[in-house]
Amino acid sequence: MIWKWTALVLCLLTFVEGGRPLGAADSAAENMKTATTSAQKRMIRILTGRSEPAKLKLISQLNAQRSQLNANLGAVIDATEQLLDEYAGSVSDDETLRGNGGEAGVPVSLRQLLQILGNCPHEEAHAVVVDALDHPDTYVSMIAMDTIGEMQHVVAIEDIVRQIRRPAFEEQYAFRFALVRALARLHCPLSIEWLQRLAEQIDGQLRHEIETRLADVDLRDFDGDRERYQGYLEQLEEGAKMAELGMPPRSMTPAQPASAVTRSGAGKLQLQDAPSESQGKLRLTNGEYYGIELNAGRMLFVIDRSGSMREPAYHETRLQSAKRELIRALDQLSPDAEFAIMLFDTEIQSWRNKLTPATQENKLHAIEFVKGIEIGDRTNTHGVLTESLRFDDQLEAVFVLTDGRPTAGVTISPQVIIHDIVGRNHMRHLKFNTIGIGVNPTTSEFLKTLATETGGEYRRVD
């Protein structure tokens, strides 16, 4: 493994004088020495041991006392590499986001160690994070991408782009999102180039996210080079004119990557060496739902059918109003979109157990299903949000409509639900858009917080 070779190199670099703990004033070279003191060996035993609480306690101490981290960085690197190796051996050949919402499988301590090393000023520490990009567990790779983007490690751009070749890039929206977000956080011309190429080839929520980032490009993204930045703006204007004429856009930065990304089927992406035939074609839009633009290409509509939905909403019931709006939204979906419908009261019911292409036939079947929705029992909000996270690896956005506070399920506490769902969604990257019909201020705040914490939008309907 790469981390084994890194550890071997570190071992060969130098040695620590027996029994002398490294101090904060030691040089960077001293701190890179492989751990040989009894204190450092004990640190490695704790970090690689079975007690997760003990690991987290030590990591917390290292975070709070940066001098202690710097003095024992070699031990922290050794321990992290050992954990990565051990965890790699437990991962199956199939790349999967294991656990509910994608993060239950990877220990919190391993994630925090990677973040500590990513935030460290030493290249040896950064190398461990970069090597973790190629880890067989996709969640570990996503943690590494997130860390590199957050810490602005621009030198790792090519290592991030290489992850496009992994099967997970085709199979998991969360993995694609993590890669795009990492590139979006790196302010340099090469990251902008790759975002442009990706925007030309992919659709749905990610394309919207990329276009939003590209709209905010500034001088910082060109290393302060005003002439180069001005050239980018001029080519951006030229590209907009070409798009109006239905012509394929040209790259807006001087260098062209060796390959681009294109769709190879529903939810599938792959590398290619030439521009896609779809470039330059007009984008199909999916309309809007309660004033929220349907930017996602793969979306889930969640409808509350609990007893309170029989309450009046002007000249009809709340459920009738919700059904009418959902039918209107389904009718607007473009043929290249994919969608699903989930109902909840005390129990959760799905129209189909996977995303369905928005063909005219499928939309008609879905509309008939919606027309037949009947009033149910209580409100299992936590249950339906949890099922949304598990629903489909290609799902990009969820639209949750409800009229009341949670009254059934594992928990009915809005605060607990927010904490749990946002935590599960941390690396799943679903956008939860919420709609509250006739809700009280407490429920309105709950729905607004859920949307805000996941990057979605909230609408209140009185």
From TrEMBL:
Transmembrane parts of this sequence: none
InterPro entries: ARM-like, ARM-type_fold, ITIH, VWF_A, vWFA_dom_sf
Pfam families documented for this protein: VWA_3
Domain (VWFA) ranges: 298-462
Gene3D superfamilies registered for this protein in UniProt: Leucine-rich Repeat Variant, von Willebrand factor, type A domain
Entry-linked PANTHER family: INTER-ALPHA-TRYPSIN INHIBITOR HEAVY CHAIN FAMILY MEMBER, INTER-ALPHA-TRYPSIN INHIBITOR HEAVY CHAIN H4-LIKE PROTEIN
Protein name from the UniProt record: von Willebrand factor type A domain protein
Species: Allorhodopirellula heiligendammensis
